[in-house]
Amino acid sequence: MTETEKALRVQVLVIGSGAGGATTANVLAEQGFEVVVLEEGDRHPLSSYGQAPTTAMRQLYRNYGMTPIMGKVPIGFVEGRCLGGSTEINSGFWHRLPPEFLLRWKARFGVEDFSNEILEPHFEWAEEALKVGSRGSGYWPKSTEVFNRGIKAMAWSAQEVKRAASGCVNNNTCSTGCPKGAKQGVSVDLIPRAEAKGARFLTGCKVKLLLKSGRHITGVLAELKREGGSSDLVRIDADYVFVCAGPTQTPTLLRRSGIKEHVGDTFQIHPMLKVTALFDETIDAQKSVMPLLQVKEFWPDISIGGSFFSVGHLALNLADNWNENADAMNNYRNMASYYVGVRGTGRGTVRAKMLGDGDPVLKYELSDVDVRHLSQGLARLATMLLAAGAREVYPCVFGLGKITSELEAVRWLDESLPRSSLSLTTVHAFSTCPMGERADRCAADSFGKVHGVQNLFINDASMLPDSPGINPQGTIMALAHRNAEHFAETAR
Ligand SMILES: Cc1cc2nc3c(=O)[nH]c(=O)nc-3n(C[C@H](O)[C@H](O)[C@H](O)COP(=O)(O)OP(=O)(O)OC[C@H]3O[C@@H](n4cnc5c(N)ncnc54)[C@H](O)[C@@H]3O)c2cc1C
């Protein structure tokens, strides 16, 4: 951070440089707006990516990768905090918003100008920008191959999902930052493109407060990190402010700044239950990209797919029943991890801490439906892995050490796992500032303009009105692109 000015004035201020922020900056810089992006995390060169998970988490993740979502069942959540945000550490799986959800959002939230036809060019833009596509070669890593064997045995509908990872060299670094730049975090290409168009990205700069005068945002108060660890508090004035700080930080910043109407009241996630399988054959999942197929047979309520695998992550996955399962660590080369993800029908909130730094407090209560779907998903995934040849299946469920037969597995089709025994995680969060014309439900209008404030916009995962039931980045970027273009047309 080299800026030393104590007060700046800019035309458009974008807060956050992830999926939503990088997209917004690109569109607005291209349209000739003066754009400055403030990013709390640092800029890291690709040469520093791909380090051991604990190092990468300190470098690229918020809270070193340990953010709890509190509730009767605590859920582990991770998100990025670096130039490029969570796109730098995600897996790059790509979906377009399914038409069913599009209609649901229109019906429940009154999202206007919203159809497949309208969204199509925006998805196309994002897909071109991130080189989204199917894998070129026919070769599958072993962890995908055995998964496919199970899918075939069950005769389920499944697909190899497109990814923002053209040229993937299968080196298992998605979640630690891809040093090859094959996985397209937005810092690889999109941010340099925005910079070439004139957008400026200031890193190590955390926005603490939005400054208001009546119904108008006049600017922000931000903390700029200086070399040596000290920091300056600066005021940056702006004509327009786009908050793209992600699903937990955007509502927190708004609430800290006194903007609370339907903000942080509807936190949604895809709760995920991880399951590890032990095979007789060598898999070497620790050396390869995660399994590339997703089972859609039970979608939208239940999705089944592949998880990142490292020896450290395996230890975590076995930790619920460590005394019983610790010896399995010796067989790590024969193991691979998968997940059951459910759409998430519980309810959550995001609030700013009353004391101290004002950081978010995240709460989510699983619904009974979530617990049923997680139980049924486990039954199906375990059955499928056994059909694929797994000898033992280890779910992240306290007290359920391993599943070794199909009869043990199918039990959970009809019974619910004890809620308190679940060890859940998530990497998909959204819906904390829903958009739509239903002012009784939404924080912002159909294009992300915050209700009741003249020049404040949200343009990130927060604006998705509800859980999309698919990997969300495509939808976030397509909507952010649409909204930024709409802003550019109307602001002139
Ligand atoms: C491990 C992992 C795997 C994932 N896998 C996939 C996948 O395969 N496919 C998929 O579609 N999605 C995936 N996701 C989810 C996807 O990456 C996110 O949904 C998406 O990046 C969210 O976009 P966003 O713009 O809302 O937030 P982010 O991309 O997280 O960007 C927000 C940025 O804002 C910055 N910020 C926050 N507060 C402030 C502040 N006060 N001042 C300045 N800057 C601030 C943050 O540091 C961050 O850089 C994954 C996520 C993770 C963590």
Could you say how many structural domains there are in total?
Answer: 2
Q: If you average the pLDDT, what whole number results? A: 96
> Helix amount, in percent?
25-40%
Q: CA-to-CA gap between the ends?
A: 32 Å
Tell me the CATH architecture of the largest domain: 3-Layer(bba) Sandwich
> Hetero groups bound?
flavin-adenine dinucleotide
CATH class of the largest domain: Alpha Beta
Structural class per helix/strand content? alpha/beta
Q: What portion of residues belong to β-strands?
A: 15-25%
- What is the number of helices? 12
What is the number of E strands? Answer: 20
Can you tell me the CATH superfamily of the largest domain? FAD/NAD(P)-binding domain
For the largest beta-sheet, the strand count, sense and barrel status come to: 7 strands, mixed
Tell me the radius of gyration.
22 Å
Shape verdict: globular
Describe the protein in words.
This protein is α/β, with parallel strands linked by helices and 492 residues long. Helices cover 28% and strands 22% of the residues. It has two domains: 7-43 and 82-90 and 95-129 and 185-261 and 432-491, 3-Layer(bba) Sandwich (FAD/NAD(P)-binding domain); 142-174 and 271-426. The chain has helices at 19-30, 53-60, 99-109, 116-129, 142-154, 190-196, 246-256, 311-318, 322-325, 368-387, 406-414, 473-491; strands at 7-15, 35-39, 67-69, 75-77, 158-160, 200-203, 205-213, 216-225, 231-243, 268-269, 272-278, 293-295, 302-306, 335-342, 347-352, 360-365, 392-395, 424-426, 429-430, 456-458. Bound molecules: flavin-adenine dinucleotide. Flavin-adenine dinucleotide binds next to α1, β2, β7, α7 and α12.
